């Protein structure tokens, strides 16, 4: 894996968008995926920057989650907004991280992202259940740089 364009095929990207839609049927939380080549700053800081650029702070319950991936750097970060951090333990994302990590190590990028997304949906369900008034607050499309 080297380039962002080669990281996922069109079909794989469509499958990921479907996984986001599926996960968001479990929860009012919003999930986004951002993929770029590399970052000049620390990946955690860059994830926060992208979170802001994508206006992911603008959810009613402050419950958006970003999966950030820097393809050339072989790095990913999961970042959840403060509405989530206020109600979950600090190691909340560990299971999701491990799922993505183990798939990525086997070059299973699409699988890792999809399993991670569905896991996030499951994890958020108890804290932020889906309800009838829920709207799709953030686009489900993959963000790329
Ligand atoms: Ca929603
Ligand atoms: Ca959404």
Description of the molecule:
By secondary structure, this protein is α/β, with parallel strands linked by helices. Helices cover 43% and strands 15% of the residues. The chain has 6 helices and 4 strands. It has helices at 4-7, 10-23, 43-53, 82-85, 94-105, 109-125; strands at residues 30-36, 64-70, 75-80, 143-144. It has a 4-stranded mixed sheet, sandwiched between helices. The radius of gyration is 14 Å and the shape is globular. Bound molecules: calcium ion (CA) (2 copies).
Placed side by side, the strands forming the largest sheet appear as 3-2-1-4
Helix share, percent:
40-55%
Q: β content, as a range? A: 15-25%
Specify the structural class: alpha/beta
Shape type: globular
| Mean pLDDT rating | 95
Poorly predicted segments: none
Distance between the termini: 16 Å
Listing every helix as H and every strand as E from the N terminus to the C terminus, the arrangement reads: HHEHEEHHHE
Q: Which sheet architecture does the biggest sheet show? A: 4 strands, mixed
* Bound ligands, named by name, code or SMILES: calcium ion
């Amino acid at each position: 894996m080297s380039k962002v364009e080669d990281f996922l095929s069109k079909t794989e990207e469509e499958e990921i968008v479907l996984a986001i839609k599926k996960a968001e049927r479990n929860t009012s939380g919003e999930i986004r995926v951002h993929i770029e080549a590399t970052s000049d700053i620390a990946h955690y800081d860059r994830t926060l920057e992208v979170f802001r650029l994508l206006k992911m702070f603008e959810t009613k319950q402050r419950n958006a989650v970003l999966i950030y991936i820097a393809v050339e750097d072989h790095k990913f970060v999961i970042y959840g907004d403060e509405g989530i951090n206020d109600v979950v333990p600090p190691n909340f994302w560990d299971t999701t991280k491990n799922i993505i990590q183990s798939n990525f190590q086997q070059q299973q990028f699409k699988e890792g992202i999809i399993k991670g997304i569905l896991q996030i949906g499951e994890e958020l369900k108890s804290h932020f259940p889906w309800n009838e008034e829920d709207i799709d607050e953030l686009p489900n499309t993959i963000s790329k740089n």
